[in-house]
Design brief:
Layout: H1 4-17, H2 21-37, H3 41-68, H4 86-95, H5 99-102, E1 106-110, H6 117-130, E2 135-139, H7 140-152, H8 156-163, E3 168-174, H9 181-194, E4 199-204, H10 211-215, H11 218-229, E5 232-236, H12 242-255
Parallel strand pairs: 1-4, 1-5, 2-3, 3-4
Family: Belongs to the IS21/IS1162 putative ATP-binding protein family.
GO biological process, one term: DNA replication
GO molecular function, one term: ATP binding
């Protein structure tokens, strides 16, 4: 005669074989809850499997966020939209759904330092990770360093193919430091390799009209911009920087 303990042991064994630890942890307590609430067998099974799937999804999201190498975690909930026009807010809300990644579109965030470009780029990257898209973040100089190392070892094309496995690359701080001709060529190759194959988010403190300054050549800048914006959402962020506003608010509070 099979006892309740035998059945529990069998379920625990099967859960271990299936590598579903949450089922092991929850099937007994959910079974008690099911009996008390009069659940059907199907409702109980759905509850147990739902716990396992939710845990696996959360773990997957954490792994993708960790693998993205964000410098810090920034979310949409933390972003201050007060100085952004309502139409721009609507665009950002649409981008947060991740549909631009499915369409292999790009996002370009332009504006002076401190207006939230990096915050917004990271927040969109986290939304992408939550939607199961692999993401990778770095500054413009970081990307150039990575590609220069690959080029020096004769593996640039292989590295670009590897990066194409990521559905979203985030290139932060374009324009903060000027690039020499070799670095500008590497940057162009990175953008060109993603053209209509994967999404990029770029942040820059410079308008497109000044990208020739940071890329060192107007022709290279034009070719880069052409590929970047062909399928892109370009968002301008303006106004005081977060740091300036915070400093002003502190002074106002102290003088009241």
């Amino acid at each position: 005669m099979t006892t309740g303990k035998d059945v529990a042991a069998e379920i625990a064994f099967l859960a271990r074989e299936l590598k579903t630890p949450v089922i092991t942890e929850t099937f007994t307590s959910l079974g008690d809850q099911a009996r008390e609430a009069g659940w059907s067998h199907e409702e109980y099974l759905a509850a147990v499997l739902g716990r396992q799937v939710a845990s696996r999804t959360a773990n997957g999201t954490r792994m993708r966020i960790s693998a993205a190498h964000f410098p810090q975690v920034k979310t949409m909930q933390d972003f201050v939209f007060d100085h952004i026009p309502a139409t721009t807010r609507d665009v950002v809300a649409h981008l947060a759904t991740g549909t631009f990644i499915a369409k292999r579109e790009n996002v370009v965030l332009l504006g002076p330092p401190g207006t939230g470009k990096t915050h917004l780029a990271i927040a969109l990257g986290i939304k992408a990770a939550e939607a199961s898209y692999p993401v990778l973040f770095d500054s413009a100089t970081g990307w150039i360093h990575r590609l220069a190392q690959a080029h020096a070892k004769g593996g640039l094309e292989r590295e670009l193919r590897r990066l194409n496995r990521y559905r979203l690359l985030i290139i932060d701080e374009v324009g903060y430091l000027p690039l020499d001709a070799a670095a500008a060529a590497l940057f162009f190759q990175l953008v060109a390799s993603r053209y209509e194959t994967g999404s990029i988010i770029v942040t820059s403190n410079l308008p497109f009209s000044r990208w020739g300054e940071t890329l060192g050549d107007d022709v290279v800048a034009a070719a880069t911009i052409d590929r970047l914006v062909h399928h892109a959402h370009v968002i301008g962020l303006d106004g005081d920087s977060y740091r300036t506003r915070a400093h002003r608010d502190t002074i106002n509070q102290q003088t009241k």
